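Q: what sequence does this backbone want?
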């Protein structure tokens, strides 16, 4: 039996009040009088007979008790599920890794037990959606607690974030207007829930947590000590009290070391290390606490190979301000380019070059009658070359009758200043109109930014992974060599030792890591590792967790046909009791 207004059951407190009234009314106090002949009803005590007599309680007392109880039950709006009706339900599970906090007492374990118990008591036809970075529908519909428990084994809670709103929208599309949606999470909803449609249950607890919130490892080329790796680690205390923890560092040619960290509430401590370039992986581990997944990181030395750049630009003008000198300084500043005379991967030229090579090209077009443009400039922000460009206070001069060909990247009004085109093999050819003697572009920060973007973009197209250390849930894109791209699949070794086969599309391979640790990828003759770490401060912060229930399915008229209301039964019972009580009272009055 279900109650729409369970707080109305407090009306049962009126039952002892009624009993007290009858008890107080029936108590008699002795009175001394001179005579009894004026009393109409003289009761004489029974002489002899049984010593014990039954309690003499009026029938009206019991009728009034039953009437009050029936009125209270009717006010609570009782109902029962129709035996022929099975309720459709869509369960949305928070799959983010904060649900692991607490080990065996984690929100995930407590929610699983709660769902299994409810399925044993109520008939449901349920579908399950995992709400992670991407919403995922699990299997087919389940009808029993045993089927549900089997499906919950796929609920691993390793996602870097929980996309609950998209998952709720997906649940509404799958279930339709007559379904119920149950959201299971470790925190309260951020906004109002659809009335009667969504019920939200939180199983989280506010606890302190110390986590590694940032971990990077980059290679510096040509430093004072030669090539070296620089590591940045950040440890944050998300608790409300001071915390002490131990940071253990192992690997990368270091002797195992332990560092004691004392952190105030909300405080972050940063550690910078310099390692030999190309050294083995570095393991960093914190002491145990409520959430284990953010206590370990592994960082490998990044794949570093400079881009081979060839400059086919005439060395004209003053040595310090010539176009070639400006290009040399900008490429040297980016730290990822190697100037070569052959086997180039990027050719920068000021004249037309043959298309027989596989190298990318940046062609700087020049001509007479230069015209200066001071903006406003329109940039294609979806293009990799415009990342970080502002072109504020830039004067860009270009030849009047020279027009770049391809898709515009930078324009001044309807004047195209830079354009991009590519061929079937994926080789890009960029054209830019520029008169450096009449422009200040080469004297602003936008000049090295533009060329650094070009180098990074070109490197991303060379064989190998785009990164060596990624965050949990981040997609790693890998460019394959020609011999590897002919294979149908690549083999990925997961942190636990299991192997996974992934399809290769052209020269591209995408890996979606869903576990933390070291991965190894093999595709043809290519073999390289990468590391995945859980680095999300929002998930590591357990201060926003909460327990409770928000929303109520019974608030909507949509579900009225799914239950049988019983309030009318108790109303009739109360009326019957009151009618009998009135008959008894009226007869007693007539007899008197």
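A:
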């Amino acid at each position: 039996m279900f109650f729409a207004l369970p707080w109305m059951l407090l009306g049962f407190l009126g039952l002892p009040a009624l009993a007290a009234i009858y008890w107080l009314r029936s108590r008699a106090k002795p009175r001394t009088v001179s005579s009894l002949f004026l009393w109409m009803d003289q009761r004489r005590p029974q002489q002899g007979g049984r010593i014990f007599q039954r309690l003499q309680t009026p029938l009206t007392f019991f009728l009034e008790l039953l009437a009050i109880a029936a009125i209270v039950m009717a006010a609570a709006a009782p109902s029962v599920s129709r035996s022929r009706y099975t309720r459709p339900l869509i369960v949305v599970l928070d799959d983010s890794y904060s649900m692991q906090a607490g080990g065996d007492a984690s929100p995930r374990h407590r929610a699983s037990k709660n769902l299994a118990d409810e399925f044993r008591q109520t008939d449901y036809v349920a579908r399950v959606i995992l709400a992670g970075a991407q919403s995922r529908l699990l299997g087919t519909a389940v009808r029993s607690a045993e089927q549900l428990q089997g499906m919950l084994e796929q609920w691993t809670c390793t996602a870097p974030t929980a996309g609950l709103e998209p998952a709720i929208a997906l649940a509404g599309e799958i279930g339709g207007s007559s379904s119920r949606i149950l959201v299971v999470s470790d925190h309260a909803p951020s906004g109002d829930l659809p009335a009667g449609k969504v019920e939200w249950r939180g199983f989280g607890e506010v606890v302190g947590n110390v986590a590694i919130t940032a971990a990077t490892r980059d290679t510096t080329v040509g430093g004072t000590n030669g090539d070296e790796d620089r590591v940045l680690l950040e440890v944050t205390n998300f608790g409300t009290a001071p915390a002490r923890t131990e940071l253990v560092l192992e690997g990368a040619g270091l002797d195992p070391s332990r560092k004691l960290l004392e952190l105030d509430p909300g405080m972050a401590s940063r550690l910078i290390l310099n390692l030999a370039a190309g050294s083995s992986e570095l393991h960093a581990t914190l002491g145990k606490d409520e959430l284990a997944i953010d206590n370990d990181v592994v960082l490998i030395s990044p794949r570093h190979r400079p881009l081979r750049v060839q400059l086919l630009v005439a060395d004209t003008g003053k040595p310090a301000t010539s176009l070639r000198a400006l290009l040399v300084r900008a490429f040297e500043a980016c730290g990822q380019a190697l100037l070569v005379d052959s086997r180039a991967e990027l050719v920068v030229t000021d004249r037309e070059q043959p298309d027989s090579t596989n190298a990318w090209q940046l062609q700087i077009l020049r001509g007479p009658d230069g015209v200066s443009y001071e903006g406003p400039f329109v940039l294609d922000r979806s293009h990799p070359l415009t990342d970080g460009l502002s072109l504020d206070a830039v004067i860009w001069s270009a030849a009047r009758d020279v027009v770049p060909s391809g898709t515009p990247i930078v324009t001044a009004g309807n004047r195209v200043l830079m354009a991009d085109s590519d061929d079937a093999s994926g080789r890009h050819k960029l054209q830019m109109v520029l008169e450096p003697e009449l422009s200040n572009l080469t004297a602003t920060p936008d000049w090295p930014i533009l060329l650094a973007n070009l180098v990074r973009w070109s490197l991303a197209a060379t064989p190998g992974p785009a990164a060596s250390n990624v965050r949990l849930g981040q997609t790693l894109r890998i460019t394959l060599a020609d011999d590897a791209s002919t294979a149908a699949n690549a083999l990925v070794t997961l942190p636990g030792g299991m192997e996974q086969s992934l399809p290769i599309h052209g020269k591209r391979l995408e890996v979606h890591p869903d576990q933390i640790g070291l991965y190894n990828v093999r595709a043809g003759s290519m073999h390289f590792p990468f590391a995945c770490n859980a680095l999300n401060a929002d998930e590591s912060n357990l201060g926003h967790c909460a327990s409770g229930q928000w929303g109520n399915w019974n608030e909507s008229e949509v579900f009225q046909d799914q239950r049988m209301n019983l309030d009318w039964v108790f109303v009739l019972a109360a009326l019957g009791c009151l009618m009998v009580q009135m008959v008894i009272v009226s007869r007693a009055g007539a007899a008197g």
